[in-house]
Specification:
Number of domains of chain C: 2
Largest interface: A-B, 78 and 100 residues
Largest sheet of chain B: none
Chains: A mainly alpha (111), B mainly alpha (354), C mainly alpha (582)
Helix content of chain C: over 70%
Structural class of chain B: mainly alpha
Strand content of chain B: under 5%
Structural class of chain C: mainly alpha
Number of strands of chain B: 0
Oligomer: heterotrimer
Chain lengths: 111, 354, 582
């Protein structure tokens, strides 16, 4: 089909979402920097969000997921923010422990 | 002119934003420099918000820009800046991991694309999308109302099954605030440095007990007598249930029967009360052993047990006088023991206990 | 507030919220800094436990008209479901938290300064776990998993100054967030295919569509289910998504391990049951909040109409009360029977998937536990294996669900019994590890050598707990395992000849073999503690049996013995919990 003349469908959105999801998953699997992995997670969440919005959109088809799609997408945005905050705090804590020379304490409390 | 009219602006914009979002996402995955990754991610997520606008979810799109791009990503970029030492900025991924990741990723993507292109329901085209009434198209009000628990979208939904599935979102809206609070506490905890890093575990191994601890003779006697008395009491309580019918038949002669009836409600109190009382007396014996072994909490237990006994007795329908008497008999020796422990030559026994 | 309103059913969670707020509020005042957060968290949890156990009243219907009998009621416009199963799981979770709080107080972690933070995180995670046990909507599934997980990431890094702890926290956070993201993508596919996110509605839509599904639709369904299973399997630490578990358990403190291995796992199992039954079965009739109270105050004629009103929107609840509606349930019930039969392929698929996970998890967990030298790693693999046993019960449950309701209830009851028993066993095991760590600063199994000469009572407790984890007869663990194996055998005899019957038999055989395998590594620990001589190079330490810690251990070990004296109590509770699932 010609994307410049035909109206777009949910499937097109899903393909875009799938690309985001897969690149995010690849990012999580291959990055060595913890922050890179976190960015991969953000991409995965955005792929899912794109799906939700597309499923709920009235402009793409008649029978839809309805408002549920939009609402779930909003909650995902909030939850992603919370998750990123905690993951970042943990990553920085890890960085502090493993970059500063704190070997004495670490050996003392070996568990 | 004909050509221009045939162009679907909506579709063109979709292609533009989709290419931007996907292209920068791939750029995120393919670069090794974490600073560039953060930048590409910002662009990718920004373009995604364009896709949201195109799908008619302008509220979600603006939230994506404000919270995600404006908040979460800035947070991530802070993280990048805080850890941006040269050796962390660019970390090479092993070639093997790349190959594996690409292979799995490509097959996953192929599967998803085939699946999403194959579902008929998702292939429907809405040709009349320009004729959707503006009132229906904009759903910010409906979103707000859904957060307060009322669904006003699709009021004309005929299918009762689907109508049952239209839930209000008041509970998640409220409970997510609790989640955010807890998460803030957690992030603050992780980020804060510990003030006294030594007080985590008990600073030093618990000091070995002094071997020369001496027990007061009176305390020893009291503990011993208490153990005997409590043991006898426990045996008596456990024997009440089997003995009761025999007493009622007067098998042991009038004298025993007379002693037995000194405490009248023994006939009427339920069986479980005696079982519990017996167990509590046994607990007292154990607690005395504990006190004997220099443990302070045994004394606390000795105070608690008579109170528990009093409660059990009150539930079992004993007379108030008996309850009070039992309480006094139980507590008096404890007070005596505490007094003995706390007096005498320094260091007193109480101070030597753990 | 009426007795069957949404808020009344939600009271335990509300109390937890209030407790978290109270702990924060008290710190605002200078005097409050001297208050140990334990003394705020404990009463709060006790009150929550009281409400969780009493609003259920699941053993009798005290409220009249079946008001409190724990029948299914969808609360908050279908977001959550309240029934006897949720009462059981929430009460078990809160009971565990109460015991856990005492445990942390005795072991001294967290200390006075960190208490408010850590207890807030624990209660926040518990709140999420309660939601996991009651989720009835795909958003709530995701939200609850997040609410339970994110505080747990921080808890894993409780000892934030230590390298291992921060490594454990980072691993847990990264893997956990990834698994949650994958799960969300699966949720989006399922919701998009069925055009609803409300689990019972999804089941109805699926049953209508199932015969006309094309190949691509089936592919999307299977793929979505697989992605969701990744998220749940991660929470359950099921193989192959278990890899985080030993590392996190080794890095985190034993206290946190106890919390993660018991509470998190019980909640994940409850969530698994909710999702699998939600998609694979037509939900039984559900009450509308407030309708029963309203019906009690109305004349008898209108009563039936109000009770059977199935509308969900509060705005519409007042309409449609005509007497003719009273006939509706029978029609619905007949249609529900056909729909349940139509969903057989869904149950078949999820049942086989769970069975596969269970076999892998159980076998791998037991085999990997062999070479461990660190007691926390050993117990981590042991919890993986136990997750496998518990998933077997879920497999039996879903296989029997459409076939024989009574047997399926038995399978659900077996799960409940196992969760109840497992709570005490694992808490006890980690309590021993924590107390010994406080005394001797070591978590290596070799350092436990000859411990019986130093603290015989503690060793006896630990041995009893380990025997119970194996499932040796007189102890509680045997009782739980027997219940699960009995329901598997029951399922096999009912479904003999079919593929389902075969894999139930297979599960039974694998479970038996695994019990035999697990014997050795648990017994090795017991042998080290009792027979081996004390190592000469061990640091001197003092650990007295007669201490608060020892008393706590006895208190926790007691139930493993008590169940052989009074086995019917837990069975009755678990059966009552399972009664309204179908």
């Amino acid at each position: 089909m010609n994307p410049f003349t035909e109206p777009i469908t949910v499937s097109h959105y899903l393909i875009a979402g799938a690309v985001l999801f897969v690149t995010g998953a690849v990012c999580m699997a291959t990055k060595r920097n913890a922050l890179g992995v976190l960015m991969g997670i953000e991409l995965v969440l955005n792929g899912a969000n794109l799906n939700f919005v597309a499923f709920g959109s009235k402009f793409l088809r008649k029978e839809t997921l309805g408002l549920d799609g939009d609402l779930i997408a909003l909650f995902v945005i909030v939850l992603a923010a919370a998750e990123a905050a905690v993951a970042l705090a943990i990553a920085l804590n890890f960085y502090n422990n493993h970059a500063t020379i704190d070997v004495d304490q670490a050996d003392e409390l070996k568990g | 002119m004909m050509l221009l009219a045939a162009i679907n602006v909506h579709s063109c914009l979709f292609v533009l934003f989709a290419l931007l979002a996907c292209g920068f996402a791939i750029a995120v995955a393919s670069t090794n420099n974490v600073v560039r990754m953060a930048f590409y991610l910002t662009l990718s997520l920004g373009a995604t918000s364009g896709l949201f606008f195109l799908a008619g979810s302008e509220f979600v799109g603006s939230m994506q820009l404000m919270i995600y791009v404006g908040g979460t990503l800035v947070l991530l970029i802070f993280g990048v800046m805080l850890t941006a030492q040269s050796r962390f900025v660019s970390m090479q991924t092993h070639a093997g991991e790349w190959v594996l990741g690409l292979m799995v990723g490509a097959s996953l993507l192929g599967l998803l694309v085939v699946a999403s292109l194959g579902v008929e329901d998702w292939q429907q085209k809405r040709t009349d999308s320009t004729s959707i009434p503006l009132l229906d198209a904009h759903n910010s009000t409906a979103t707000g109302l859904a957060f307060s628990g009322v669904r006003v979208d699709q009021l004309d939904q005929q299918d009762p099954v689907l109508r049952a599935g239209m839930s209000g979102y008041l509970l998640p809206f409220v409970i997510v605030s609790m989640h955010l609070l807890v998460v803030l506490i957690g992030a603050g905890y992780m980020a804060r440095t510990k003030r006294m890093s030594t007080s985590r575990l008990p600073a030093r191994p618990i000091a070995a007990p002094r071997p020369d601890r001496q027990r007061n003779v009176l305390v020893t006697a009291l503990v011993g007598i208490g153990m005997v008395i409590n043991l006898v009491a426990a045996i008596k309580m456990f024997s009440v249930v089997p003995l009761r019918p025999l007493i009622a038949e007067n098998k042991f002669g009038p004298a025993v029967s007379k002693i037995w009836h000194l405490i009248p409600p023994l006939d009427t109190a339920p069986q479980w009360a005696f079982v519990f009382l017996g167990m509590l007396f046994l607990a007292n014996v154990l607690l005395l052993v504990v006190v004997w072994n220099w443990q302070k909490w045994g004394v606390i237990g000795l105070v608690v047990v008579p109170l528990l006994q009093a409660w059990v007795m009150s539930q079992g329908g004993f007379r108030a006088m008996d309850i009070g008497g039992n309480l006094a008999i139980g507590l008096l020796p404890v007070v005596l023991i505490i007094a003995l422990l706390c007096t005498g030559k320094r260091p007193t026994m109480w101070e030597q206990m753990e | 507030m009426t007795a069957d309103s949404s808020l009344a059913a939600f009271l335990p969670e509300l109390v937890l919220c209030a407790t978290i707020l109270a702990m924060l509020f008290v710190r605002l005042f200078s005097l409050g800094k001297y208050v140990n957060a334990f003394y705020i968290a404990l009463p709060g949890t006790l009150v929550a436990l009281y409400f969780a156990a009493s609003t259920g009243g699941m053993l009798g219907d005290a409220g009249g008209a079946g008001m409190h009998s724990g029948e299914r009621m969808e609360i908050f416009t279908g977001m959550l479901v309240y029934d006897s199963f949720s009462v059981f799981i929430r009460a078990a979770l809160l009971l565990f938290v109460v015991l856990f709080l005492f445990f942390t107080k005795i072991s001294g972690i967290p200390d006075h300064d960190d208490g408010p933070d850590i207890y807030s995180l624990v209660l926040g995670a518990t709140l999420g776990m309660c939601l996991m046990a009651t989720a009835n909507h795909l958003l709530m599934v995701f939200l609850a998993v997040e609410m339970a997980s994110v505080p747990s990431y921080v808890l894993a890094g409780l000892m934030k100054g230590r390298r291992k702890a921060s490594e454990a926290a980072l691993k847990y956070a990264v893997y956990g967030a990834g698994a949650a993201g994958v799960m969300l993508y699966g949720i989006s596919l399922l919701a998009g295919l069925l055009n609803t996110a409300h689990l019972p509605t999804m089941a109805v839509v699926l049953s209508e569509k199932i015969h006309t599904l094309g190949a691509s639709e089936q592919l999307v369904l299977v793929f979505g289910a697989l992605l969701i299973s990744v998220g749940i399997a991660f929470k359950l630490s099921a193989v192959p998504f278990h890899f985080w578990c030993p590392d996190v358990f080794e890095g985190a403190t034993a206290e946190v391990n106890a919390f993660l291995s018991v509470a998190s796992k019980a909640a994940a199992l409850a969530l698994l049951v909710r999702v699998v039954l939600g998609l694979g079965m037509i939900a039984p009739h559900s009450h509308v909040p407030g309708a029963r109270t309203a019906a009690l105050s109305k004349p008898a004629v209108e009563k039936t109409a109000a009770v059977f009103n199935v509308a969900h929107e509060p705005a519409r609840a007042g309409e449609n009360h005509s007497p003719s509606d009273a006939k509706k349930p029978h029609v619905v019930a007949a249609a529900g029977h056909d729909a349940t039969a139509a969903l057989l392929p869904v149950r078949d698929f999820t049942g086989k998937l769970i069975a596969l996970f269970a076999v892998l998890t159980c076998t791998f967990g037991n085999l990997a536990a062999y070479g461990q030298t660190n007691i926390k790693r050993l117990l981590a693999y042991s919890t993986i294996a136990h997750a496998g046993y518990m998933m077997m019960a879920v497999a039996a449950l879903i296989a029997l669900a459409g076939v024989n309701t009574a047997s399926a209830r038995e399978a659900a009851a077996a799960l409940g019994i196992y969760v109840g028993v497992y709570l005490f066993m694992n808490l006890g095991a980690f309590a021993v590890v924590a107390f010994l760590r406080n005394a001797m600063r070591s978590e290596e199994i070799t350092d436990y050598a000859g411990l019986i000469r130093r603290c015989p009572l503690t060793v006896i407790c630990f041995a009893a707990i380990l025997f119970s984890l194996i499932g040796l007869p007189p102890l509680a663990g045997f009782y739980g395992k027997f219940a699960i194996f009995a329901s598997l055998a029951d399922g096999y005899s009912l479904l003999k000849g079919s593929g389902t019957g075969f894999y139930l038999m297979l599960l039974l055989v694998v479970g038996g073999i695994n019990t035999a395998i697990s014997l050795f590594y648990y017994l090795r620990v017991v042998k080290v503690m009792t027979i081996d001589p004390e190592p000469r190079d061990r640091q001197p330490f003092t650990f007295s049996d007669v201490s608060l810690a020892g008393a706590y251990l006895w208190l926790i070990t007691l139930p493993t013995f008590a169940i052989m004296i009074y086995p019917s109590g837990l069975t009755a509770l678990a059966r009552a919990a399972a009664e309204h699932l179908f």
